[in-house]
Design goal:
mainly alpha; Annexin V, domain 1; elongated; 9 helices; 0% strand
């Protein structure tokens, strides 16, 4: 014979398990991802900020970016450290959250001026092309003759 108390106990246990799973999923979704402040930063600014860091720190930072943004930065780092950083990214597995948060804290303090700065856009390829439309033909030819191989 099944008792009402047995049913209540089983129901209560089932509800608690379900609530525990829901809370676990919610908590996982609320966790702040490391280096979130760097993800919104222009890759060029980020490059200048991290290029003097130790290769392991650079690898850790790049591994928390989207691959396309990490590639832009990796492409523009000095040739002599690109391979080392890539090896460190490939070998990276799990990193202690405490280590990540400590590194992030230091970077955030040092980066606050760059990340919060407001920049005015000026120049750029479009402006250069527009300007060259109005220079003398001889000037344009002279400029463009030596322009091959210039990294923009």
């Amino acid at each position: 014979m099944i008792k009402v108390t047995d049913i209540k106990n089983q129901f209560s246990l089932t509800v608690r398990n379900h609530i525990g799973k829901v809370i676990g999923r919610l908590a996982a979704g609320l966790q702040v991802k490391p280096f979130i402040f760097i993800r919104r930063t222009n890759p060029v600014d980020l490059l200048h900020f991290i290029e003097k860091e130790h290769p392991q720190i650079i690898a850790l930072i790049l591994s928390h970016l989207k691959p396309k943004k990490a590639a832009i930065i990796l492409d523009n780092l000095p040739d002599e450290i690109q391979e080392e950083i890539t090896k460190r990214i490939a070998a990276m597995d799990k990193t202690s959250p405490e280590v990540i948060w400590k590194i992030e804290e230091v970077l955030r303090k040092n980066f606050s001026n760059i990340a919060s700065a407001k920049y005015v856009t000026a120049g750029g390829i479009v402006f250069a092309v527009e300007t060259l439309k109005y220079v003398k033909s001889t000037t344009k030819t002279k400029i463009l003759k030596n322009f091959k191989g210039v990294k923009l």
